[in-house]
Amino acid sequence: MSVFWIGRARIRDPEGYRRYTDLARDAYVEHPHHILARGGRFEVLEGATHFDRHVVLEFPSMQAALNCYRSPAYQRASLVRQQASHDCQLVIVEGVSASGSAHGQ
Fold it and tell me: pTM for the whole thing?
């Protein structure tokens, strides 16, 4: 079952954030995934409006997404991201099966 890595951030240092994306790429190469959305145009329909960067990645499993996040390469990148942005949010959520039901529901 696919798992989705959903991140959003408010960027305070664009150059620093570019360093983060370069470093994060090293982790992503080691952990197979699909990029579904990254930094494109968006419109907030409800909720917090202060985020200016969004990303959605698809991983094959919860463990695969956690392995990527916990990898030394991503942890190095994460430190740079934390310095270059405010109020980051990262969520990993299971998708639904082909029958339309979520795992465990």
Answer: 0.85
